[in-house]
Amino acid sequence: MSGRPSDQVSVIPERELELVRKVWEGIQTKKLDQLDDLVDLAYEWDCVAERPGTQVKRGREAVKAFIETWSEGWDEYRMCCERLIDCDDHVLQFVRLRARRSGDRGAQLDQPAALLHTLAEGKLLKTGAYFHRDDALEAVGLSD
C-alpha cells in the first residue's frame, strides 16, 4: 500500500482508540501501574532503530522502568499526541517530544516522532519508537 496517510486512513475502532489513549495517559501522568491492565505481560518497547546500541525492552515491568528512567533525565518532559492513524492491527501515533534540561547548557528537545503500537486481544503487545515519521509510515506500508 502506498500513498499519503490521509488517503488511506480508516476509522480507528473505539476500543483500540481508548486503549491507546489510556496507555498514553498512564505514560503522561507517570501512573505507570495503569499499564498493568492495558498492555500484555510480555509487552515490548523497541527503539533500537532510533538508538543504536540499545536493546528492546521486554516485559511490562522492564518497559515501565525504561519509561520512568527516560523521563527522569529531563527537568521538563512532555510528549504531545498529534495524530492517530489506524493501520489494521496497529495504531500509528504521531507525537512531538518536548523536553528541557537545566544542566548541559540548557539542552532542549523539540522532536517530531512516531509510536507504532501493535494490538491484539484488547491489549498492546509492542510499541516501536521512531524519530523519523517516514520510517514509521514505511513500517506499515504507507510510505510514498
How is this structure best described in words?
The chain starts with 13 loop residues before the first helix and ends in a 5-residue tail after the last helix. It is built from 4 helices and 6 strands; from the N terminus they run H-E-E-H-E-E-H-E-E-H. The chain has a 6-stranded mixed β-sheet with strand order 2-1-6-5-4-3, sandwiched between helices. The chain is globular, with a radius of gyration of 15 Å. Strand 3 and strand 4 form a beta hairpin. The longest helix has 15 residues, at about 15-30. With about 140 residues, the chain is α+β, with helices and mostly antiparallel strands. It has a single domain, classed as Nuclear Transport Factor 2, Chain: A (Roll).
**Can you count the beta strands?**
6
The percent of residues in helical segments reads: 25-40%
Structural domain tally: 1
Taking Cα atoms only, what radius of gyration do you get, to the nearest Å?
A: 15 Å
- Second rung of CATH, namely the architecture: Roll
The whole-number mean of residue pLDDT values reads: 83
Ranges where pLDDT stays below 50 over 5 or more residues in a row are 1-9
Oligomerization state: single chain
Biggest sheet features: 6 strands, mixed
